Amino acid sequence: MSMAGNLRKVTGLSKVGRLRKVARLARRRPRVDLSHPARSPLGSSVVNCVIYQDGARVPESGDVADALRRVRGRGGGFVWLGLHEPTDDEFAGIAELFALHPLAVEDAVEAHQRPKLERYGDTLFAVFKTVCYIEHEELTSTSAVVGTGEIMVFTGHDFVITVRHGRHGSLGPLREELESDAEQLTKGPAAVLHAIADHVVDDYLSVMDSVQEDIDEVETDVFAENGARADPGRIYQLKRELLELKRAVVPLSRPLEELATVPIRVVAPEIQAYFRDVADHLLRVKEQLFAFDELLNSILQAHLAQVTVAQNEDMRKITAWAAIIAVPTMVCGVYGMNFEHMPELRWTFGYPLVLVVISVACVVLYRGFRRNGWL
Question: Which of 165, 166, 160 lies closest to 196, judged by CA?
Answer without folding.
Answer: 160
